[in-house]
Write a structure and sequence with these properties.
3 helices
Length: 201
C-alpha cells in the first residue's frame, strides 16, 4: 500500500515530454509573433521618419521660393529659384546659400559634387497664375509645385541612374517626368505654394 502511494506521488512531480514539447511550441509561436511585430514597427517608424523629413525639406524649398519673391520687383532675379521652367526640374544648388535640391538622410543639403549620395531629391515646377502682363503691374503670381522623393524600401534606381544617383545634377526634364510616373519605385511628398511679385512702392 505504501509502495503504491510513493509511486503515484513521484509520477505527479514532473512534466511529460508531450507537455514540454507543447510549451516549447507555444513559446516559439509567441517569439515569432513578437519578432514580426518588431519588424513591422521598425519599417513603419523608418517610413514615418522619411515622410517627416521630406515634408520639412518641401517647407524649406517653399521658404527659399518665398525669399526669392521679395526681390522680384520688375523682373525675376537671375540667381533665383524662380527661374525654373514650367516643367518638373531639379532644384539647382546655390553656393551662396548652401542650399539645393539634394539632401542626405538627415535632411542636410548636399552640394552638386555630393548629389550622388542623396537620400532625398527635390523638383520644382513653376507656372504663372497671374501673368506679369496684367492690367495692374507688379502683381504677378506664380504657382510653385514642390516634389520631394526618395526610394521605396527594397526598390532600386533605374539602370541609367545607378552611377549618377537619385539626384543627378544633369537630370533632364524627361527623366524628371519619368520619376513622377514611377510610383512603384519612389515615395513622394508634394507641396504647393503661391509666390507673388512685390510691386514697387
Amino acid at each position: 500500500m505504501r509502495a503504491g502511494l510513493g509511486r503515484s506521488r513521484g509520477a505527479g512531480r514532473g512534466y511529460t515530454l508531450v507537455e514540454l514539447m507543447m510549451a516549447l511550441a507555444l513559446l516559439a509561436v509567441s517569439v515569432v509573433g513578437i519578432i514580426s511585430l518588431h519588424k513591422v514597427t521598425v519599417v513603419t517608424n523608418g517610413h514615418a521618419k522619411n515622410l517627416a523629413m521630406a515634408q520639412r525639406i518641401a517647407q524649406a524649398v517653399a521658404g527659399q521660393l518665398q525669399m526669392d519673391s521679395t526681390q522680384w520687383v520688375t523682373s525675376i532675379p537671375t540667381d533665383s529659384f524662380l527661374n525654373s521652367p514650367a516643367t518638373w526640374q531639379r532644384v539647382p544648388y546655390k553656393l551662396g546659400r548652401g542650399f539645393g535640391g539634394a539632401f542626405d538622410a538627415l535632411g542636410n543639403p548636399l552640394t552638386d559634387a555630393k548629389a550622388g549620395q542623396a537620400a532625398f531629391c527635390t523638383h520644382v515646377r513653376l507656372s504663372p497664375l497671374y501673368p506679369t502682363t496684367m492690367s495692374v503691374a507688379g502683381n504677378a503670381v506664380l504657382r510653385a509645385e514642390i516634389r520631394v522623393f526618395w526610394l521605396r524600401a527594397g526598390a532600386s534606381l533605374p539602370d541609367e541612374m545607378v552611377q549618377l544617383g537619385l539626384c543627378d545634377v544633369n537630370q533632364s526634364a524627361e527623366q524628371a517626368r519619368q520619376i513622377g510616373l514611377s510610383t512603384d519605385r519612389y515615395h513622394f511628398v508634394y507641396q504647393t505654394v503661391g509666390v507673388r511679385q512685390h510691386s514697387q512702392i
